[in-house]
# Entry
Amino acid sequence: MTLSVELLDDMNRRREEILAGGGADKLAQRHEKGLMTARDRLAALFQEATFQEMGTHVQHSARYFGMEKKVLPADGVVVGTGYVGGRLVSAFSQDFTVVGGSLGKMHAKKIVMLMQAAAKLGSPIVAFKDSAGARIQEGVDALSGYGDVFYQNVYLSGVVPQIAVVCGPCAGGAAYSPALMDFIIMTRKNAYMFITGPEVIKAVTGKAVTMDEVGSADMHASVSGNVHFLAEDDTDAVRIVHKLLSYLPSNNSEDPPHHPSPAISLAEDDGMRALIPDDSQKPMDVRGVIEHIVDPGEFFEVHRSFAENLIVGFARIEGMVVGLVANQPAVRAGALDMDAADKGARFIRFCNAFNIPLVTLVDVPGFLPGVEQERGGIIRHGAKLLFAYASCTVPKVTVILRKAYGGSYLAMCSQEMGADFVFAWPTAEIAVMGAEGAIKVLYSKELKAAEDPKAKVRELAAAYRAEFASPYMSAGNGYITDVIDPAITRSTIALSLRKALTKRELRPPKKHGNIPL
Ligand code: HXC
# Structure
């Protein structure tokens, strides 16, 4: 057979029908609503002319409810690879205009095919989720398809970074696929995510709730903690994907894109000293400290609105990529609670899986006291943070800025928990417990007998801080590398990181550890 005009026309006609998705009207309606189509999202993600579609002509295999007569373009999901910032990325984008982007057997097969390719190519995966869930007409085939996708999500966890963009409905068990990935970006516009929605909740519990209460992007970003990044809309979501990818390696056998500055700078930064409040009881906003440590504009916060007493995010320090973990004394005095421990542990484990060094900034009075915390399992949650730090083998640099008390001193990556370098500012207070609490235990009789017990507490606490909780006590016992002038914090971290980039740490072989869940 020769290549005739008819054959080419036929090929082009077929392609055009597929590119039209659910039809020109439905595509136009989306644009009117300010939403991107499935293909718009991929076009925005990839560098121009680099997208190669896979499985363009795949068709569903449903045979019930009249489905045998229906043609579903691309079976409701556009799948393929392309370049982002010069690096290969695999992506799929569910097309809501084709039976609500619902997932059936072949739709799932396309996604699985892409994920298997990503494993071989060693490329990150980006998934645009805009789907009404299991395709009802396909029954158990749809459920099986979800199972296949979940299996791949888990199989690839820790092998290639997986990023979900929830930009439409994501309901029922379908929400578990993004939850099994590394990061969820969710748009404020058009997206909701829940296991059981308002109707089911009303039917089962009798309680009337709104969609916003149980499934909005804002709720998930600030309350449930399911969402790592809030995006205003599709364009903003793609911007976040680009930024996030810029900090990540393509897979677990690569280092992140470090570009250490050629010159080693030992510059001093007097501005850092000025950030420290005179009164050690006054909270210090750690964001200011972070700004002085990272390269200008190079802090990319993860989970910003959730558990704000602990800040986590990616950063560059003299061109080296790091995962940064910092107590935030401006919120709940920086005390660690269940959510903060979960948030920190998950981030630390991601960094370890993808060879990203960790920098930890410590200013923590302890674990948050309270009945709610104890009954909620702060022991189990806090243990995640300890487990995460102790089990990760990437370079770890810790700086104790001010308070580091009790178990939280260890939970914020002390030397014993595997830190390669631990520096302390002269303002650091390191001890079993805070000064006031310790004084009340140690001097209860003296305080009862004192004429002015409050003044006595202040006096004894000051002495405790100056002598017993002093960083020189820890330094003298070899628990910290050095006490440093805050002005050289950035340069000290950077120099330590350079040296630690070649770190190799081998542990006994095992199937996996048993992190407290
Ligand atoms: C097949 C579906 C569908 C589904 C919607 N459609 N949901 N087709 N299976 N699950 C079709 C509609 O018939 C319609 O087709 C098109 O998609 C758009 O749907 P609309 O209802 O017109 O859109 P909208 O008003 O925007 O409402 C969207 C929606 C609603 C809120 C998502 O469609 C809805 O509630 N759908 C059912 C969701 C659901 O219960 N899914 C199963 C979840 S359980 P036409 O041809 O008219 O354009 C699940 C289990 C997974 O997913 C378990 C994994 C472990």
Q: What stands out?
A: Residues 270-434+470-500 form a domain with the 2-enoyl-CoA Hydratase; Chain A, domain 1 fold (CATH 3.90.226.10). The mean pLDDT is 95. The chain has three domains: 5-245, 270-434+470-500, 435-468. Residues 139-156 form the longest helix (18 residues).
